[in-house]
Design brief:
36 strands; 5-stranded antiparallel β-sheet; 6-stranded mixed β-sheet; alpha/beta
Amino acid sequence: MKTDMTEAARAPGAAEPARTFDFSRGQGGQALLGEGWWGPEPWGVWSSGRDASIRLAGLQDPASDVALTLELRLPPRRPGGRGQVSIRVNGDLVFTVVELPAGPARIMKVVAPGAIWSRADPAIVSIHCDDAFNAKRDAGRVDSRDIAVGLIRLAIESVPVRSAPQDDPLAVRQMLDALPEAIRLVVWDPEATLWRGTATQGGAHSVAGASAIVAELAARGIVSSICAKGDADSVRVALEAAGLLETVVFPQVERLPVGARLAKIVDLFQLRPQSVLFVSDDPGDRVEAGRAVPGLRAVGPGAVAHLLAHARFEGEPDPRLRRVARARQVATRRAAQAEASDPIGFLRRSNIRVRIELDLESHIDRAIALVERTDGLNFTRRRLPGDDAEAVARQFLVLTRGHDIQAGLVRVEDDYGDYGIVGLYVLRQSVRQGTGLLHYCFSSRTLGLRLETWLFRRLGRPPIDVRGEVAADLFDDGVIDWIGETAIEDGKSGIAIATGDRDAMPAILLRGGEEMMAVGHYCRQLTGEMGGEYPFTRDRIEIRTDHSIMLRHAIEALSAPCREAALRLGFRDEDFRTRLLDDRDSASIRVFSFWNDAALRLYRHKTLGMVVPFEAFPAVLSIPDLTQSTLETLRPQFHAHWIADALEELKVNYELLGTISESQFKENLTLSLGRIPKGAPVFVVGCNARVRWPSMKEFVTLAGQAAVNQWCRELCAAAGLRFIEPDEFIREESDVDPIRPNQFGRLVYFRICAIVAREARARPAAAGPAL
């Protein structure tokens, strides 16, 4: 077997004999082992999981390719396991084999550019196998180790670049398998790949089939460009003769080194180098390409015939060549910006316009493509699980219909053209689950516009877990003043809100539950100043400030004994304050909801008479009267929490009142709304009182919610305030949240915001509430 290994490692024209290392017990290969291996055995060594590494020193010649031959074995695979093995050199993927059989030794040979090997000394070769096998778990044996791949022998040698088997089908397949991601741009060195002869000498003749390959790539949304030396007019004539003038985008014909030309092309198209492939018959140019543009891959003409059949070139159907047209727009704009003496001034003159489209369902394929296929500007990198496209789409739509989820697609256009949908955000705003961006991703065609940072600010800089290396800094505080006209729209309903002149809109102040958090998301796009007063968690316990009694306490102020009593329940002084009644905000728009008055239980202090809403979620679950809670009803993880003392205080000194009465509610609102400054626009949003739980066939009316709506309706009519009826913003059953049907889907909250925006802009100054 050792003789076979040595012969397999030799290559024609090898610069030096192969060095071979044996990893069986007592042999010298053990010195090369890095992380992730068990101890050596008589035959070789197992990896201690899916990932392991080898250290190889002395490979510092970037002018030579390096051939690595591995003799591997795989353990039995569990049902559904693919046995996929991938090899990385200094972090670059150089080889992937998808169905490596289990059992006897298998030989894998990899040829990778010296420019990759020479990045570090020693070079780190990482081996990854998708499946891990545990003999005790999977076969009932005593051995309990997790193992994935076995290494028996390794051979390595430097080979001249020109000896690399560019036309050998197996070698070509290995090179294409090693592409780190889907290819979006193919850059052709046209001589010997698209035509034979020299265009500048008028002797170019098209390579058979080349035009058809370029055309088919374009029909899949994969763009082609040219990197050539010489005379641009001659190259244009050759492109026209080959029928490629319309499908080849922004050909670069300059007398610059090939690396400089390729770097310029990658910059013009605003793509990650990993998604770009260079095709050239010149081995030296291929080496220079990898050196000048790290991450870019290069292949010889022998690979051309295999491109269309490979998974990295599947693309997406684009028979109208929209992606080619948009790539031309991006390159044209980028070239003009590069030539401008003032790049920022150029952006300001470009008339950049942004629209946020809320109708994800009509664009679900594009939304999923942004999540799955963007990389450099995908800040969250939460890929969607599953292989069934329809199931993935359904799952994604269910997520984005939740009452605590806000989501939008980003469209961009400027004076150079319409770039289409280039971005997506999915934002969770929840009292219980917190606030944060779940998905935040953009097409590379927006690179340089700083659109992602601009929108991040517009969203209020929500928490985000940035994963991996990204091509932009969301937290940069530099000026971004070149994005002009903006709007939010729901294409399905035709409702749109212009959001460009935010300084002309007064401050918007909101108070209520999670529903107001959702409305506030859209109101934030309308004004430069927004304030929200919502429930929140303190040390994991919900604090409910969204009840009308808390607004009343903010006006009347608690007495010293009541304040001390409230503090013992876990409240703080700031919980009894509000900005919505501040006389200094006389022009600000006020938006209230009192939905939770219908559900929150009130408790009254037995001696002080103070009334407060009180919840102990999630420390106590499903107890109608918290004065009856005991240590047994308190979840164990909260036994040492301050909520345990608060519950004891409640049990000793308070009594349950239940939900609010009509007289209490009207007293609270009459006092509170009467304190709003004169002239301030006031909106009170009605709550959803008709629901159909998943187990029900018919809708039912919730008595408490219906009563609160009626009380608000009466008070608003008497005071001349705007009561927004639920029927004004609920259009269809799908508007109701499928998990919590007493709340709404996100588009409903956008419609509420649209009502507020339209009427606040059109409304003359009023005399103020007449309460």
